[in-house]
Specification:
The protein is of the alpha+beta class. The protein contains four helices and seven strands, in the order H-E-E-H-E-E-E-E-H-H-E. It has a five-stranded mixed beta sheet with strand order 3-4-1-2-5, sandwiched between helices. A two-stranded antiparallel ribbon has the order 6-7. The relative contact order is 0.18.
Amino acid sequence: MDRITALLLAILPVVGAGEAPALATRVVVEVFGVGLSENGDGLAFTRREGPLEKGENPDPRARQLAEESGQQIALIHSTSWRWEPDGRIVLTYVAWVKEGTLGPAARSLPKLAAPGPVDPLRPRPAEIRELDPLAHGLRHLAFLLRTSRDGAMARALGPPGVAALQGIEPDVAGRLSPD
């Protein structure tokens, strides 16, 4: 047996005779809980991640992840997905957290930078930093807030949330400023 065959047999799951091995792609749900900082001078966020089991609906899983830390969710929205070099598919959600429930572990949100250039033939940015999906998600929420015809977004966010998101330029993608 050659080395490549031995290596494949070592890492592939054992299957019955005549069955093809299935290489499983791991899917995880990532949830950014976002809300007003405790001192009210800006936005703060938390990040949680958890596996998605085969056949599981990611929407309730995202809400569960957000609420496990005591956050009360006013609005939750799926904002993006990405492939990671370790083979994971990450489904990203942004959850707007009711005032006073973000928790002490929340980090201050850095300033949003303008979206970078986009290569029309390469939809995935060359680098995706930890908070880039959050920047994308906040721009997405700002867009939904501005285009909501029934006012449901504004009601869910409340006046302080609406004010905070009105300071974010709506866009389809974006990055956080390094400073």
